[in-house]
Amino acid sequence: MFYKSEPTMVVDAPAPHLVLKGMSKTYPGTIALNNVDLALRPGEVVALLGENGAGKSTLSSIIAGVTQPSEGSMYWRGEPYAPSNPREAIESGIGLIHQEMRLLPDLSVAENVLIGRWPRRAGFVDARQMRKQAEGHLRRLGFTGRMDQPVRALSVAGQQQVEIAKALTLNASLLILDEPTAALGAAETDALFERVAELKADGVSFIYVSHRLSEIGRVADRIVVLRDGEKIAEHRSGDVPPAQLVREMVGRSVDRLFPDIPESMGDEVIAVENLSDKDGRFADISFTVRAGEIFGIAGIVGAGRTELVRSIAALEPRKSGEVVVAGSPVKANRPRDAMRAGIVLIPEDRKQQGLIVEETIENNLALPNLPLLGRGGWVGSKDVRKFAKGVSERFSIKGNVANAVSSLSGGNQQKVVLGKWLALDPRVIILDEPTRGIDVGARASIYEIIAELAAKGNAIILVSSDLEEVLGLSHRVMVLAQGQNRGILSQEEATPDRVMQLAAH
Known about the structure:
- The chain is about 35% helix and about 25% strand.
- It is α/β, with parallel strands linked by helices.
- It has 4 domains: about 5-95 and about 170-250, Rossmann fold, CATH 3.40.50; about 105-170, no CATH class; about 255-340 and about 425-505, P-loop containing nucleotide triphosphate hydrolases (Rossmann fold), CATH 3.40.50; about 360-425, no CATH class.
- It starts with a strand and ends with a helix.
């Protein structure tokens, strides 16, 4: 069924400068995109919504010259448009910010922002001018790091800001933003939206892809919804109830995004006592988590959230302090000891830190569990296959376990990361950005898993840039700002205003 809201009459509206007619893309056995039409006017933001696999990335890649369509035609500024590669699209004035970051980790921040366009002086790269130009773009996005530091030293959020700045330096007339805020907090998202508004006023258009439905009304002028490669709905306004958008995206009603969280809790499982980072990114952090409790950690980007939980899991060096699980201290800087104590960390970047994406699903699931599968020092392929199928069924992972992880959607990849660590039956589960870049249907499924873990008696530490997620799942919320604990709030006290007030302290 095709839904369409009432059109808004616009006097002397500019003619579309991008027009797509009948765009289709087929792969052997798969229709990724089927007969999609789209028009985009100068200075307009069109939100492109849909579940993973709905066709959003395929459509974006076709426009950006990354993928070639099977059928259909495109027109840019009134002329036929058919880029054979991204460079042709960029030269035409169309740029794409990918969901998966494509930075050069060993180059500096400034070098990445202006990659391929480094300013020169007397035949040499003008490093001072390069840093100045990069800083001008990044500061407007709320970036606070140094221009000369290597990108690999940045947090995922910092890398996302570099990726966005890199695209903004293209002076493009159309920018496709694919999940640009997935790793950003509220302040960084606000800064990005301010920049989008400035560029809109200059006539720049945007195609905006996001799973954060709460953002859509703030940034979008129109909404297009895709499902199974087809355009299901088009709304002539960004002001559409999220429940309606979810229904259109998934083809059914999702009554509640957040499940009921068990209220009963047991004894204290983990105590973090005066923990301080060796590099000064956080200091004197103390809190406890009980069995069955979901303990949320909120704060703006750079507050020290990820560094803190990595230190708890013994993955980052500590300056001082102690982590105690069930009364026994966990040695610093010894990840194996943390695992033996029952601590597991689901990292914020599943592809770089949580998976070997070109390996099979079954091998990824088996890796942390080899001691459980081995017999006499050997691990048999049949044992791995049997184990992987069991985990896959438990977590509803869609896909043949013999296939590569790279073949899975983001939501299913995240379930693989969850599955491989939860098979160890840990006491303490740390979730760092557990639904980053995941569609609404997969998010609801992962939230159910989190609720089940709490009901089972696990102690859960939850870090998320999505404030709605933290508040919707947590029994208590600790707010970090500049590496300091600004307060621990009960479920009743943890309102959005109160959390942001402490986070901006």
